[in-house]
Amino acid sequence: MAQRTIRIRGARTHNLKNLDLDIPRGRLVVFVGVSGSGKSSLVFDTIAAEAGHQLNETFPPFARNRLPKWTRPETDEIEGLSPVVVIDQRRIGGNARSTVGTITDAWTYLRLLFSRLSSPHVGESNHFSFNDPAGMCPACSGLGEVVVSAVDRFLDLDRSLAEGAILLPGFGNGGYWYSRYADIGSFSPDTPLRDWTEAERQALLYGGEHAARLGTRPPADYEGIVPRFERIYLRTSDDLSDRKRETIARFTRSETCPECRGDRLNEASRTATVLGRTIGELARLEITELHGLLDGVTDPAVAPVVTALRNRLRAMITIGLGYLHLGRATTTLSGGESQRIKTVKHLGSSLVEMLYVFDEPTVGLHPHDIDSMTALLRELRDKGNTVLVVEHDPAVMAIADQIVEIGPGAGTGGGELVFQGTFAELGAAGTATATALGGRPPARTRPRQASGTITVANAARNNLRNLTVDIPCEVLTVLTGVAGSGKSSLAAELVAQHGAIVIDQKPVSTNRRSTPVTYTGIAAAVRRLFAEHSGLPAGRFSANSDGACPDCRGLGVRYTDLAFLDGQETVCETCQGRRFTEEVLRHRVAGLSIADIDDLTVADALDRLPAERIRQALRHLERVGLGYLRLGQPLTTLSGGECQRLKIARELRDTAEPTRYVLDEPTTGLHPRDIATLLDVLDQLVDRHHTVLVIEHNVDVIRHADWLIDLGPGPGRHGGRILYEGPVAGITDTVTAAALHGEPA
Ligand code: ADP
Ligand code: ADP
Ligand code: ZN
Ligand code: ZN
Questions:
Q1: Ligand 2 centroid to residue 726 C-alpha, Å
Q2: pLDDT above 90 as % of the chain
Q3: Where does this protein reside within or beyond the cell (predicted)?
């Protein structure tokens, strides 16, 4: 009989403190705790990592090299795992061939339908695949787009050839190609291009007939700069260097393929019809509409295919994605949309006894849409799977079979099991989560006074219905509406029209050496502090100086290059990872050596380091609730929410001029307790006369707004209108109003 629990003993990943835990299998378990308490360290970096690692071990080495790499967690023991599927908010890859249809397999069924029923009859289903040579449009190879020269960017008409009028690399005066254009005697090298005749400019660009028409002047073999650019950059099969790629990005643009007009298929396949519609037309219909249309397919021979297709479509509608269309490229989906699409994909799977691990599945969902997500989580469990969810939303906690809280605090103050039991039992547990659920941050009773407005005019991006909206200045505006109603599109228009700064959750750095120390720029001040206390020159306390350990050159680790295996990183034996020579390490400030500084949390450093300049830089981090970060923690390990708060900290410190800020769902990854901190930070921005626009679903944030703009009523083409603009207290009759008043919509 299969083991009924996942048994974890002595977990020590990141901040976990020798954690022991038994998790029931076949249940829905929700992990809660303040931000930075160790939920992800436990669920993703311990449980999922070990499950992934064990699964990989079952494959032969050559296959293992192609599988995702898992870092084995630090634990004494983990038992009772099964194959794991991680469903996080990472966007679905950068592959232009992936669409909502292909990723959910709905396209496979639609292709089958066309291969059986379409007229004129074309035969096999791969003829309707744009990823198969039998089906793809020959002009764009099934991408639906072609790359063409952006000729308008090639020339600077105000300059002469000698002054570098041809902006392409190598064509400027003295460049590799220059003499072939300037010195052939056909074009005047010193006349600005604007003063040439149109015929001359065409000849310069295209050569060939254009050049011939100018008379005898250009040599017969003269090649225009456009054909030459396309030959060298676009029609080459060579591997492209980074520089060539940059040039291509600058001097080309993507256009809808002129042959298939974006349908991606060859002529026979894109003209065949079912129910009088082509497959391309069906791919552009909203999923809701496509689902309804399939009622019209009554041929019993295809009944199983139609049922399978409708099931897929229904799952997408249930999860609030009925406004998408199958042809939508997955690269354009938001993080939340990507996560929901991945969930649909797995619901279709008939595997059982799997381990599913979710990272905040309610991100991007309006309170109105959350019920459909919780229904999907239950459905996965009821198929016989174990479902583990990291989540802050009480609606998800409420449907859990069991709740596990990690805490009590963040970072070194967390990493322990503080509660395990039902949602009802949590209420009396007195933990940070129980407390936060009991008392919500106060709603704003009196809105702050705006200082003028800025107008976003005629916004028509994506689904927006030519909106003109006033955004009040120097207050907090919250933009609400169901997923897909057009919030991000409107925010993007604000940015495009008025140049607002977007404070998003993208990584602040991809460099493993970036840390809070480098980010806040306190490194020099720290070295100076040690210099003052020791009498040594400040440079000795730099890891790039002769104060550094000679064997690892200040890295603390050494790399072993193992030819065809992955390189190995081991702690330097000479300095034990402490990076400096014994002599340097002997000098202390407030009892700390230079190597100890990296282990301090921001809050510790504020308590212990006696230098006002350092404390000033760090205070902003504490202000945004990041007091628990270690000074030496690589910024590549921060979550999206942490990155966002770090960026706010930088803005608080650096920006004096009144500025416009846009934040998209800043409560992502935040525990209810931390939402109060976030609201406080947003208020600090407003206090400094900044204008803040926040896209949010979180009710506490909405209640804190000075001004509310509610979009809707539905997603996609059912949305894009303004339902309400005004103070929060005045909103009625929308799903947002219902959520605010805690009523079912
Ligand atoms: P939560 O998911 O509860 O927000 P995490 O598990 O992400 O918390 O983080 C717990 C602690 O471990 C935090 O102090 C965080 O900064 C730290 N941490 C997270 N990832 C890493 C890592 N890769 N290396 C070192 N520390 C990390
Ligand atoms: P919200 O932010 O309210 O969730 P969005 O502004 O992201 O809504 O989307 C509004 C509509 O525009 C939706 O129908 C969405 O599918 C569509 N949309 C968003 N981005 C793109 C894009 N890059 N290409 C095509 N359609 C898009
Ligand atoms: Zn094409
Ligand atoms: Zn060393």
A1: 24
A2: 50
A3: Cytoplasm
